[in-house]
Structure formats: C-alpha cells, structure tokens
C-alpha cells in the first residue's frame, strides 16, 4: 500500500505540451482509473508515474518520498501492459519469476513464490507452457502474476484488457477487482473504456487534452458531470446534449425547446440569450402514456440490447437524435410518433462556450 | 483458363529453371560422375575407377589438414563476425551519437568483392610497410617486422580476421533489424523489474535475437563454406598448406595437379558435409519457429 502524489506535472515532447499541469493524490489502497479519449495524455501520465517517461516539470511522490528522478526499478511499482509484454522465450513460470530471478533470490524460494501466485490466479497448469501456447486471457493473467509476485507498492495498468474480446474483458475485470479486494494495494489503471472505468474505480480521473477535466467517484461523475466533456464521455449511451439558448425573465431562468419551457435554478450567473447546452441522460426521458407529454418525437431507430432497448428519436429542437431507454418488451415501430416526459430533477445546463456545468 | 495459366506458369518458370539446371544441377551431377573417374580435365580417354578416389581421400594427409583448417575456418568465420556484428548492433542501437554514419561505415566492406578485401588486407599485413606492423611498431615504440601471411602459425588466423572484418557488417545489419523487432514493452518490463544492462542483454535481448542469430549463422555457414576467393588471394592455401581448406585443396588437386577426378571426389565430400550442416540447421530452424513464430 502506498500513497501517490502528483504535483503540477507537465510533459512536453519538443514544443508540444501533452500534459498541462496535473495535480492529483491517490490514497493508500485506492483504485484510481484514468480515462479519456485517445491522445488525451492518460498513458503518458501513467508512464511518468512508472518512471519510463521523464517529467518535464513538477514532482511525483510515493509515500512522501520524491521519486521524480528515480529509476523505474527503484520506485517499487509493477506495471501490466496492454500487449501483456511476456517474454516469448520463457515459460509461464520463468515469466512470473523474472523479477525475483533478477533480484537473485534462491531458486527454491522463487519456485515457491511462483507456485503461490499461480495458485491465486488459477494458472498452475499453465506454468510449463510458453506464452504462444496461451489464450489472451491466460496471457494477461500471467502478466498480472509477474506484477503481483514482488508485492509492489503500486500497480500500474496500461489498458490491460483492450486486446481481449468482450466476454473475456468482463471476466478479467471481475478478477482485477477481486485482486484489489484481496491485496488492497494502490492501483492506477488507464483505460479508454468508460464502462471499465465505472465498474473498477474507487475514483475516476477524466483526462482531455493533457488536463484533468474532473475527478471523483464514478457515480458522482455520472450524476454531476463538471462539464460537457465529462457529460458526453461518462455513461453509455452518452448523455443527450442539445444546443439551445438560455432565457431569463421575472419568473426565472429557463430554456425553450420548441415551445417546451424547462425552468432551471442555476448556481452560476446566467445571462439572457447566452448559448447553453441542455443535457439529459437517456434514462431520465420517459415515454409518456398520458395525454400531456412534454414533447412529441418520432422513432428513427430501435436498438434491442436484450436487457433494454434504446430508442433514437427525431425532434424539432435537436439535430442529433435523442436516446431514450425503454423496456425490451415494447411494441414501438420505426416512424411511430410518441410523447416524451422529461425528469425535471435530472436536467443539466452547460455553458456552451466554457463547457462548465451551470446547474 | 486453368490450362492457360498452367501454360504461362511453365513458360515463366522455364527460364530460371534452365539457368538453375545449367549452372547448378549439371555441374553437380558432373562432379558426382567425374568423382568415379580418373579424368585429368582435358583428355577424353579417362577410365571409370570406382571408389578409388574416395579411398584415396582416406589416406590423403593433406585432406585431413584441409579438413581441420576448414573446421577452424568455419567455426571462426561463423563465430567472430556474428559476435562483432552483435556488439556493434547493440552499440548502434543504444543511440550512440553518429550511429547511422557508423552503420554505413561498418556495412561498407560487405559491398566490396572478396578479391578487393583480400588484396587490401595483404597490404595491411605487408611486413615492411603494412598498417598492422606499423601500428604495432608505433605502440611498442620499436620497429616491428612480422610476415603474418608467410608464417604457418598466423596465416589462417590472419585471413580469418580479414574475413571477419568484411562479414561483420552483414551480421550487424541483421542484428540491428532483429533489435528493432523486439517490442519496446519487453525492454520496459526489464527497466521496471530492475534488470541490469548485462541481465537485460543476457536474459532478454540475446534470446529474443534468436531468429536474427539463426539468419546470421545460416548466412555465415553458407558464406564460409563458399569462402575460397579470399584465401586464394591472401595465401593460396599456404604456407605449407597451413591455410589450405577443403575448397582450396579441391582446387589445387583439380586445376594445379590436373587430377579432376580426385578433385571431384573432394567436392562430393564437401557437398555432403554442407548438406549435413544445412539439415541440422533446418531442424533447429523449426524449433525456433515454434517459439518465436
């Protein structure tokens, strides 16, 4: 277990600044997930923590000690790579025991420790095999085995499940969670998959353009996104975002969606006629069964996902279709006109210019 | 359509096949044929002598001398350029300043013909004014005069050095290609796990260069078996047959003593040796393939 502190980390490659000042504290035993689109700097951040990449400015502290300029091996970290990074010429046993062999531990001790790790990861049968003889999931388990054997202070995961198929990804996700529960080690996990981030993290950090957009527990990010980017990135399907203008009068602040007046109590100062983006999640729109819907829409596409269905609706006020979650037992048809009710307690208003959540 | 394709396949294949038959198959089978005769290379009135030539090989002291020299030549000619090539590749790969210039310089000798290389090294080894003795004399601060190629103790070794100088560039380039194919992640694992430079080379880089090593050794084996011209230029097999290899011995018997039948028998033995080595090599290649794909 260890505490990780990042102080104003900056990183430039030549003239291009890819990390633009990141401050973050990862507590003892916390499972922290870095998420963001490709090229947002999350992997670079992880590599700087590991020491594989140098830091241009700022400092990294592990358990209070400044490790900014320490060699990777001195930081007592373990890293699991997307490519698994297993040595093809070594057996599973040799791969797992690699770090211990480098540390010149007695052969007997290495064997015992490898056997113990293999038992935990349920890969005892695979020990004599070479990586080529393993499936993707098995390879990733071996890679995890190699990282846990040294009891590192912090685990770093660089998109470890990206090369696995969907079913295996879910299974490995659970195993990583179990591992975290069991070891209680601080973990920093990089992914571009927001479902992975939501399910694994104690806390998520959303990166974009080399900056932290928001950090917090998954559900907080989901319910209270700090800006349009987080709102659009966290959650599947993505939040419905509609460009509109804000109006203020004596009765208060509101937006007008083709005659539908939606009032807001905004925290931030609102200016009349300012450009805003209205956000609402798909589960907070409901197909209306009574005669007084908030607005009418036409069903464009129906996606049946088994446990639920998604309706993509065309409206008069949005160029992009709106997504609505409905029960899989429905009888909607493409082209059908339906009435929609908005959950007024779950609405978001973002300043279109700054992206900031005003609600 | 199928038939027409077949026709063109045969047409296009016939030319290279003809070249192959004329330049390889025909001389090869001729050698086999002449190895059972006492042909002198000129007259047509030669006789079939059965296994006489092969029996003669068994009692030919010069053949044994040549076989020992060939073994030394092959082991050194495989090992030294591979080792030098590996060391140079590792140095250049570690982003030494001016690496790409060094790469070109080290590769240059392979572009020269063995005759040019041989003659250059003859000058380098020249006892009175050659570079080798001049440098040694400069370091030792006294006049150094040693006839490297004229002394039985150093003749073969001197040619091996010249050969290695030429061949190193080839193995360096192959090793460099091998090094670039090693995944960066694996090297990073070494960094994180705390491998020293030597551990990294010994436990990871060198084993991962196995496919490159296989190619380097294959080319070295083939090139060293063919290694005739540089020996011919530099020592001609001498002095006192001290640098006589099987290929050189075969040449001397066939074209200097005009014993074409006997020379052919030596070439057949050399062919069988090469075949055995290549068979062993292919077996190993299969194993490497299973691990590295």
Verbal overview:
The complex is a heterodimer of chains A (359) and B (293). With 359 residues, chain A is of the alpha+beta class. Chain A folds into 2 domains: 4-233, P-loop containing nucleotide triphosphate hydrolases (Rossmann fold); 245-351, OB fold (Dihydrolipoamide Acetyltransferase, E2P), CATH 2.40.50.140. Chain A has helices at 42-50, 92-96, 98-102, 107-121, 136-148, 166-183, 194-200, 218-223, 228-233; strands at 4-13, 16-26, 31-35, 57-62, 65-66, 77-80, 154-158, 186-191, 203-208, 211-216, 240-249, 252-257, 260-264, 275-280, 285-287, 295-304, 309-314, 322-326, 337-342, 348-351. Chain A has a 6-stranded mixed β-sheet with strand order 6-7-8-3-9-10, with helices on both faces. Chain A has a 5-stranded antiparallel β-sheet with strand order 13-12-11-14-20. Chain A is globular, with a radius of gyration of 25 Å. By secondary structure, chain B is mostly helical. Chain B is 76% helix and 0% strand. Chain B contains 13 helices and no strands. The radius of gyration of chain B is 23 Å and the shape is globular. The two termini of chain B are 37 Å apart. The chains are: A alpha+beta (359), B mainly alpha (293). The interface between A and B is medium-sized, with 25 and 21 residues.
């Amino acid at each position: 277990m260890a505490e990780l502190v990042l102080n104003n980390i900056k990183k430039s490659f030549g003239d291009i600044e890819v990390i633009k000042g990141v401050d973050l504290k990862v507590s003892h035993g916390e499972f922290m997930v870095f998420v963001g689109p490709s090229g947002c700097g999350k992997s670079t951040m992880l590599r700087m923590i590991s020491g594989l990449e140098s830091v241009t400015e700022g400092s990294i502290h592990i358990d209070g000690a400044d490790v900014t300029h320490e060699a990777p091996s001195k930081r007592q970290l373990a890293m699991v790579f997307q490519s698994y990074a297993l040595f093809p010429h070594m057996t599973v046993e040799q791969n797992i025991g690699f770090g211990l062999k480098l540390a010149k531990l007695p052969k007997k001790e290495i064997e015992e420790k490898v056997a113990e790790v293999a038992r935990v990861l349920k890969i005892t049968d695979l020990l004599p095999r070479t990586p080529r003889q393993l499936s993707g999931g098995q390879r990733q388990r071996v890679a995890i085995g190699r990282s846990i054997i040294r009891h590192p202070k912090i685990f770093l995961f660089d998109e470890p499940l990206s090369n696995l198929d969907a079913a295996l990804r879910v299974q490995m996700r659970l195993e990583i969670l179990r591992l975290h529960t069991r070891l209680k080690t601080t973990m920093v996990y990089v992914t571009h998959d927001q479902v992975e981030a939501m399910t694994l993290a104690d806390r998520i950090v959303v990166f974009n353009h080399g900056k932290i957009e928001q950090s917090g527990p998954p559900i907080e990010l989901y319910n209270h996104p700090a800006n349009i980017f987080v709102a659009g990135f966290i959650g599947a399907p993505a939040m419905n975002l509609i460009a509109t203008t804000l109006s203020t009068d004596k009765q208060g602040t509101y937006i007008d969606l083709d005659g539908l007046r939606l009032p807001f109590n905004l925290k931030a100062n609102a200016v009349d006629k300012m450009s805003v983006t209205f956000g609402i999640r798909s589960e907070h729109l409901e197909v209306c069964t009574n005669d007084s819907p908030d607005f009418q829409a036409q069903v464009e596409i129906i996606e049946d996902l088994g446990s639920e269905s998604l309706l993509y609706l065309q409206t008069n006020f949005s160029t992009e279709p709106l997504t609505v979650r409905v029960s899989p037992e429905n009888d909607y048809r493409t082209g059908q006109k339906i009435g929609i009710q908005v959950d007024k307690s779950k609405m978001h208003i973002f300043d279109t210019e700054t992206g900031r959540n005003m609600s | 359509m199928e038939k027409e394709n077949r026709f063109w396949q045969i047409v296009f294949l016939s030319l290279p096949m003809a070249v192959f038959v004329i330049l390889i198959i025909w001389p090869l089978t001729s050698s086999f044929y002449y190895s059972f005769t006492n042909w002198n290379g000129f007259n047509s009135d030669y006789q079939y002598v059965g296994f006489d030539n092969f029996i003669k090989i068994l009692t030919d002291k010069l053949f044994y001398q040549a076989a020992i020299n060939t073994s030394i030549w092959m082991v050194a000619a495989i090992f030294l350029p591979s080792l030098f090539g590996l060391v140079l590749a590792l140095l250049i790969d570690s982003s030494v300043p001016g690496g790409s210039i060094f790469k070109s310089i080290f590769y240059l000798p392979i572009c020269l013909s063995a005759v040019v290389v041989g003659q250059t090294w003859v000058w380098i080894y020249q006892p009175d004014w050659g570079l080798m003795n001049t440098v040694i004399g400069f370091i030792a601060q006294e006049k150094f005069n040693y006839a490297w190629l004229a002394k039985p103790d150093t003749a073969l070794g001197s040619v091996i050095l010249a050969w290695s100088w030429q061949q190193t560039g080839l193995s360096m380039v192959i090793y460099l290609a091998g090094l670039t194919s090693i995944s960066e992640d694996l090297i990073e694992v070494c960094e994180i796990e705390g491998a020293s430079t030597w551990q990294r080379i010994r436990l990871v880089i060198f084993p991962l260069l196995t496919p490159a090593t296989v190619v380097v050794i294959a080319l070295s084996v083939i090139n060293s078996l063919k290694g005739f011209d540089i020996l011919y230029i530099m020592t001609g097999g001498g002095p006192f047959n001290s640098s006589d290899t099987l290929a050189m011995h075969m040449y001397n018997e066939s074209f200097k003593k005009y014993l074409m039948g006997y020379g052919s028998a030596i070439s057949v033995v050399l062919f069988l040796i090469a075949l055995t080595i290549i068979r062993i090599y292919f077996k190993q290649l299969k194993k490497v393939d299973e691990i590295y794909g």
